[in-house]
Design brief:
3 domains; flavoprotein; transmembrane helix; alpha+beta; single chain; Amine oxidase domain-containing protein; NAD; about 575 residues; 4-stranded mixed β-sheet; FAD/NAD-bd_sf
Length: about 575
Amino acid sequence: MVLIHTHYLTDNPLLWVCLLLGICIYLLSLIIGKRKARTGGIGALTTAVLLGREGKKVLVLEQHGLAGGCCPTFVKKGFEFDTGIHYVGEMGEGEDPRILIDQVRRGKWSGFPWTKPMTRYSLSFLHKALPDGCWERNYFKKLLEMFPQEKAENKWAFMGTMALKILPEFLTMFLVRSGIHGLIFPRYNKQRRTSVTEFLNSISDNTELKTFLLTLWRFWCATESNEHVRIRIIINHYMGGAYYPLGGSSEIAFQMIPIIERYGGKVFVRCPVSEILIDDAGRAVGVKIHKSSGDINIHAKYIISNAGVHNTFKYLLPKMVAAKSVYYPLVEEVGSSISYMTTFVGLDGSTKELGLNAGNTWAFHSFELQKMIEEYLALSVEEAAELDAPFYFISFPSAKDPSWESRYPGKSAALLITLCPYEWFSAWEKQRCKHRGEDYVSLKDKIGRQMWLQCQQVFPQLAGKMEYIEVGTPITNRHYLGYPRGEMYGLDHKLNRFSPEIFTKLRAKTDIPGLYLTGQDVMTGGFVSSLHSGVFTASAVLNRNLLINLHLSTREIKARKKIE
């Protein structure tokens, strides 16, 4: 949760003492995050920094012990693991997302420390890795050269998407309902009606090519009835390689929090928001923080939720208020994205000793990827525990970060991620984390250890090198991230989410006075989208389009670099 203040009362340290003692406080403006979870995601932190720069003072309230949403890392048994940021595209010098985060981080032209781009996108087919360099970054460039119309279509489709977010809602809805938006942006309307499978079938008959492209998408949406604009964006996003934060993904929040504090704000952890307070006029006026010592009510002029549409309108708002909002039916209409399991493995040996590389690997058993996934997800958890995961992602964060060896000499870390229905572990959802019983532990560990055996078939040099293993399930994700079904990317990325009507409604300013949204539900899933959502949200609160400022700054920076 993030509180934004604009009066000198908040400069008084006694205010923070009052907050901790549970005294009811009135503040001018406020932002909140996930229900009983990490509230300070990248969308919230970006919003907080931008508003702080405009003279607003911000308080970030975080349910757990680490702020940053999916950015934090954790250390167990001498090994550090990232939890959500495994690679980010377009972080090269002069690229727009890089310029944005540099400005958010410092407020001046000082670069955020990112590693050199990882250019390897490896596939493992039938437990045999394809030759190194098979999927280098120039492959994406060659792909676009094969289909030059894609670049133009991507540009116009993206402009059509942004128009739905930037223009005033009443004007956008008029353009959509009158058909004018479709006439201006026909490519957007064509693309948003086409599923990923239909798109891939239209560009190639090569099954291997289509399977490779599909691997980049399947963690976003596991069904065929989804929207394919994202896969085109993904192709462009990683065309210049993928980057990783120097020092690990926790550096992102670590670098942003001091900026919030420099503007007079604060970041508190272990402060769960349990309710959004609504006055008699139907306006959001504050939040309730649940503490064992007693609930705390904090009042503010503006409430900004980073909890996601599902949590905000199903759990945080009073039902009588939420049910009247246009957002309320969208929760069921769009649905939640797929969840996943993660196996964290600590390894004995350095990156060099183990022969690891910084690239990412997508491993699968057959080029009939969609069929494999659907059959696997239809199994019971007991059946799945007896089989290999048909599709999984392998990452070595220790190999991506040049500073790792100085911090954890002679050790390495691996992450193995696969798709997983929430229903497989929902029987344990009401039990406390770390107290879910032997049946739960043995079941998840069996799947996790099977994934580790599969990983060794791709990287045989890792046999006998495991020192630590831990397995996270959808209810683990639910506990730490706060999403009700342990989902990875908030709302699902199906076709209907990207219809002009729904996409227009999913914006920063809600139809409940005083309530705003930020985070990936405002745009789409992923780090860069969440980063941009902070710009949209700050713009809505300030009633000023900060995207124009960003565009002008980007042009200025690029012009300077050309001169240099």
